[in-house]
Design brief:
The protein is mainly α and 145 residues long. The chain contains 8 helices and no strands.
């Protein structure tokens, strides 16, 4: 666990009314800590209203929204797909690639730039030079004769 997350967790636990070792990490105050806070309640009462206040409208926000974001962010950080699969706890790497990652615009732009560089090396962009895989000027002249 990241040290910042660990410190925050210990600090929050110490400040909670329910801080015994067997208490829930997110206890329900209404149920005197006897049950955890339900994830759907967190979405309904906290996350969705916060999204509305942030101006996010017309989007369905659920726990899979966060999974998609995590998958896409792991990809944009260059984390290998096998590690992302394990962090997202997918049985198959295909699920990670197909459902939980999107190509990030900067990655698409970089891929496009690499393709242009492959097809049109920088010296060609600045000068009138043939691509390395094209036939030489002499061969082209002899073929047209």
């Amino acid at each position: 666990m990241c040290s910042v997350v660990g410190r925050s967790r210990r600090s929050g636990r110490a400040e909670s009314f329910y801080n015994r070792p067997n208490d829930f990490l997110f206890p329900s105050i209404r149920k005197n800590g006897q049950t955890p806070v339900w994830p759907d309640m967190v979405l309904r009462k906290i996350i969705r209203p916060a999204a509305t206040r942030a101006g996010i409208q017309g989007k369905t926000i659920d726990w899979h929204t966060f999974r998609h974001s995590i998958g896409t962010n792991l990809r944009s950080l260059g984390v290998d797909v096998k590690t992302a699969q394990e962090l997202l706890r997918h049985a198959n790497v295909r699920t990670t690639l197909d459902l939980y990652t999107q190509a990030v615009s900067s990655q698409k732009r970089e891929a496009s730039d690499k393709l242009v560089e492959l097809l049109l090396p920088s010296k060609m962009v600045c000068q009138n030079v043939q691509h390395p895989s094209a036939p030489s000027q002499e061969i082209a002249a002899n073929v047209s004769d």
